[in-house]
Design a protein that fits this description.
226 residues, 9 strands, 7-stranded mixed beta sheet, single chain, 21% strand, two-stranded antiparallel ribbon, globular
Length: 226
């Protein structure tokens, strides 16, 4: 019998960390956030959702961060998620616009500045993490600490979970300075430097299972309907 292996998320000590979650990525981040706070870190958490109805485990998310900024994608009649604590904030917009709104003061005074973050941890869709990667040298650049570290939890296709046997989870990386190409197994370590991840390659790998995923969803819908 073989189970999940991989590597634990690195937990720094006595620093400031910004967590950026999208959808189900928030289910992973609230456990990481609790570990970060237990290690003496300050945590500011951008929790993004497509719809307010997707929100779950609110108390766990609040316990995972000193400050939570709730974000929901814009749309007709969309109302922001209610912030329960005085230090938390709410915004209607995508995750990047939310980060800019928080960092630029549009959401009022804040207890932890985004510019204080020594590390960013992003967990969500490949599109969201790629957007964060690109924005760090664009729209987010004025609000981030120079020299900060940015990590993404790369959810690539996986099968064997045995650290490099089936190569289903192999991901391409490119050194941002030299352009040197390399490949890594995500099941060996899912947390990878955002600047090195080739997200176009990752998206192509993810799409290889799209037919099976759609069929599985249709079958599950049928079972639940019955």
């Amino acid at each position: 019998v073989m189970g999940v292996t991989g590597a634990p998320t690195h937990i720094p000590r006595a620093t400031t960390v910004a967590m950026i979650g999208g959808g189900l990525g928030n289910a992973v981040l609230f456990s990481i956030g609790k570990a970060l706070r237990a290690a003496g870190n300050r945590v500011v958490y951008f929790a993004g959702y497509k719809k307010a109805s997707d929100l779950f485990k609110v108390s766990d998310i609040e316990a995972a961060a000193d400050v939570v900024i709730w974000a929901v994608d814009p749309g007709p009649g969309v109302v922001g998620i209610t912030a329960n604590r005085p230090q938390d904030r709410s915004f209607v917009g995508n995750i990047l616009d939310t980060m800019v709104a928080y960092a630029s003061g549009q959401l009022g005074e804040v207890s932890i500045s985004l510019a204080d973050a020594d590390e960013l941890i992003a967990i969500g869709s490949d599109g969201m993490m790629n957007a964060v990667k690109r924005a760090r040298s664009g729209m987010l650049a004025p609000y981030l600490k120079p020299g900060h570290q940015a990590i993404g939890s790369i959810n690539s296709p996986m099968q064997c979970m045995m650290k490099g046997v089936c190569a289903q989870c192999m991901c391409r990386q490119v050194d941002p300075v030299t352009g040197e190409e390399s490949f890594v197994y995500s099941c060996f370590n899912q947390d990878q430097p955002l600047d090195r991840v080739d997200f176009d390659h990752l998206r192509a790998r993810l799409r290889q299972n799209t037919v099976q995923e759609k069929l599985s969803n249709l079958w599950l819908d049928r079972l639940l309907a019955d």
